[in-house]
Write a structure and sequence with these properties.
Helices cover 79% and strands 0% of the residues. The chain is an all-alpha fold. It has one domain (2-120). α2 runs antiparallel to α3. It is globular and about 50 Å long. The relative contact order is 0.11.
Amino acid sequence: MEKIAVKSFKEALVPLVCAIHCILTPLATPVLSVLGHNTGVEYGLLVVAFVMAMTAFGFALRHHRNHIVWVMGLIGFLVWGVSLAGGFFPFSEAQGSTAGSVVVAGTLLWNGHLRHRAVCGKCICPIHRD
C-alpha cells in the first residue's frame, strides 16, 4: 500500500510543477524581455516545457492509454518549435509560439482529466460527475 502511495505522490507532483510553471511563465515573460531577444533562453524554455509535458504524458498514458493526447501534444510542440526556428508558417513567430503553446496546454489539461478519470474511477470528486 505504501508503494502505491509513493508512486501516486510522484505522479501528482508532475501536474503540480506544471501548474506552477504555467502560472509563473506569463509573469516571468516581461522580465525576460530585459535580456533582449535571446534565442537560447527561448529554446531553453521550450526544452524545459517539453521535458515536463512528456513526463506528464508518460505518467498518465500508462493509466488512460489514449495516444491521441500524446500526438496532439507533439503537434503543439512541433508548431511551437518551428515558429521559433523561423519556419514556413504564414504567421509570425509570436503567433506560432502562442498557437503551439495553447495546443500543448490544452492537451496537458485533457491529459490530466483523462488520468484522473482512469485512476479515480467512481469517487465523490466534482470533476467527473456523470
